[in-house]
Design goal:
The chain has four helices and nine strands, in the order αβαβββαβββββα. It is an alpha+beta fold and 182 residues long.
C-alpha cells in the first residue's frame, strides 16, 4: 500500500479537487471482521455478507469519502445524478495481482417508507433520507482465502498519506488477528 500511496501522491498532485483515486492491494482474508470494525467505531460502517454458496465477495467498508442523498419522489434520480460525476472522476491504481479485485462501489439503500414528510417525528427511520449511498474511504473485500483492501483518496488527502499508511497497517493487523469477545 505504501508504494501505491507514493504513486497516488504523484497522480493527485495538481489535480481537480473532485478527482478520486482508488488504491487496491491484496491482503489475507480477515479472520475477524469484529476486530476490523472496532478500529472505526466512530465512522460509517457498511457490510455486505452474501450467502456462503455465493461467488460474490463479502465486504466491509469504513468511513466515507462521498455521501449521496436523495429526497422525495425524485430520490432515485437525485442519487443517480450525484453518482455520475463521482464515478466519472474515479480512477484506479491496483497493485500487481489485483486485476480481478472488485471495482469500488457505493453502499446504501432506500427508505422503507419513501415519503419522509409523512413520517412521525418518533419514527425510528425519521432521520434517514429517502435514499442514501456512501463511497467508503476503506473497503475490505474477501471470499474464502482471497482478500483485497481498497482505499479511496482525493487531492485534499495529500497531507494525510502517512496517517493513511498507518491506518492500512492497523487494518491489516486487525484483519489477521483472531478476535475473542468477552
Amino acid at each position: 500500500m505504501r508504494d501505491l500511496l507514493a504513486q497516488a501522491a504523484q497522480v493527485l498532485q495538481g489535480q481537480k479537487e473532485d478527482m478520486l483515486l482508488c488504491l487496491t492491494v491484496s491482503v489475507r482474508a480477515p479472520e475477524s471482521l469484529a476486530a476490523c470494525a472496532r478500529l472505526f467505531r466512530e465512522e460509517s460502517l457498511c457490510v455486505l455478507a452474501p450467502p456462503e454458496r455465493s461467488q460474490t465477495f463479502s465486504c466491509l467498508g469504513f468511513g466515507e469519502v462521498r455521501r449521496l442523498v436523495g429526497r422525495g419522489s425524485a430520490a432515485l434520480v437525485q442519487v443517480k445524478e450525484a453518482a455520475t460525476p463521482i464515478l466519472k472522476e474515479l480512477r484506479e491504481l491496483r497493485a500487481v495481482g489485483c486485476d480481478h479485485a472488485p471495482a469500488p462501489r457505493l453502499f446504501g439503500g432506500f427508505r422503507f417508507f419513501p415519503d419522509h414528510a409523512a413520517c412521525a417525528a418518533t419514527d425510528p427511520w425519521n432521520s434517514f433520507p429517502d435514499a442514501c449511498f456512501v463511497l467508503p474511504r476503506w473497503t475490505l473485500f474477501f471470499r474464502r482465502e482471497e482478500g483485497f483492501l481498497q482505499l479511496v483518496v482525493e487531492p485534499a488527502d495529500l497531507d494525510k498519506l502517512d496517517g493513511l499508511a498507518e491506518q492500512f497497517d492497523a487494518i491489516k493487523t486487525a484483519a489477521t488477528t483472531p478476535y475473542c469477545a468477552g
